[in-house]
Amino acid sequence: MKTADFDYYLPEELIAQTPLEKRDNSRLLILDKKTGNIEHKHFNNIIDYLDKGDVLVLNDTKVMPARLYGVKEDTSAGIEVLMLKEIEKDTWECLCKPAKRVKIGTIINFGDGRLKAKCIDVKDEGIRVFELIYSGILYEILDSLGEMPLPPYIHEKLKDKDRYQTVYAKNIGSAAAPTAGLHFTNELLDKIKDKGIIVTYITLHVGLGTFRPVSVDDVTSHKMHSEFYQMDSDTADILNKAKSEGRRIISVGTTSTRTLETIMSLYNEFKECSGWTDIFIYPGYEFKAINGLITNFHLPKSTLIMLVSALAGKDNIMKAYREAVDKEYRFFSFGDSMFIK
């Protein structure tokens, strides 16, 4: 299976640069994974495609202002740092630019020294491990010094940083938003619950594993970076009951999907647990946890388009993407959505 098999043509003007004024006004492409049939709606119509008793699983991770601009203590050279994940207390794996200037022992100052990062390990692909030095509460310091880590294809400045958070974001720790959830409003979630659809939450802190490009020709040679996940006992009970009664489990986003599939693969049931996942889902994978998926439109040749191709079939996905391009859907993080049912 070749990475090039998951390429498609996307005009640059269809890459959404800013979020819509109203979250649930985005367009919604409905794809029937069995028939390949396509419908075109708006996101607030999603309630019409959800049935009483369905379980909707959302990722309640919260994005950190994880992009920092600092200077090397010895030379004052500028360094950009993207915090990816906390390995242990105040020890973080980060992506650096330019990474070649950051060696073991390098100290980077942020905000006139309010936060310092000392490099303690050098990894491949521009990744460095830092020991953080600061006084006070780290997330308060990040809130004042850091920027929201918008993807590189977004060139517009984000006016309201809350628009890169879901309305239900709770557990801080992500380096990117679980963007499928950006379409939900509190009002829409209330209507969904009122219809008898069960809404529950997992956490996966989005890191490099989700948005790192595939650089190998052979899909199976790609290695995912690990990301932290957790599920509580209430969610596990809800999901196990739905599974035993044959009710649909619909994940919101590829991050929720990867968490649910990881847990089912490990334990053959849902259970209260936490850990690190590097699961890579591509065509040929047999889904054990989910029945449907609400998702955005993904980058060509990415692990995410491979995941949705595994669920709906590559031909169905490529046909749906071609139709979305023809109908000028908005793509990627601030773009439109798809429901694979």
Which features does this protein show?
nine-stranded mixed beta sheet; 341 residues; QueA-like; 17 strands; Thrombin, subunit H; alpha/beta; single chain; six-stranded antiparallel β-barrel
| Element-by-element helix/strand order | EEEEEEEEEEHEHEHEHEHEEHHE
By CATH reckoning, the class of the largest domain would read: Alpha Beta
Low-confidence stretches: none
Number of domains: 2
Helix proportion range? 10-25%
Please give the CATH architecture of the largest domain.
Answer: 3-Layer(aba) Sandwich
Query: What global shape is seen?
Result: globular
CATH topology of the largest domain: QueA-like
Structural class: alpha/beta
How confident overall, as mean pLDDT?
Answer: 95
For the CA atoms, what is the radius of gyration?
A: 20 Å
* Largest β sheet strand count, sense and barrel closure: 9 strands, mixed
In DSSP terms, counting alpha (H) and pi (I) runs of 4 or more, how many helices?
7
Distance between the termini: 25 Å
Give a count of the beta strands, DSSP E runs of length 2 or more: 17
Strand content: 25-35%
Neighbour order of strands in the largest sheet: 2-1-17-16-14-3-12-13-15
Tell me about this structure.
The protein is of the alpha/beta class and 341 residues long. The protein has two domains: 3-63 and 160-340, QueA-like (3-Layer(aba) Sandwich), CATH 3.40.1780.10; 67-145, QueA-like (Thrombin, subunit H), CATH 2.40.10.240. 21% of the residues lie in helices and 28% in strands. The protein contains seven helices and 17 strands. The strands form three sheets. Strands 2-1-17-16-14-3-12-13-15 form a nine-stranded mixed β-sheet. Strand 9 and strand 10 (127-134) form a beta hairpin. Helix 6 (303-312) crosses helix 7. The longest helix has 14 residues, at 254-267. The protein is globular, with a radius of gyration of 20 Å. The two termini are 25 Å apart.
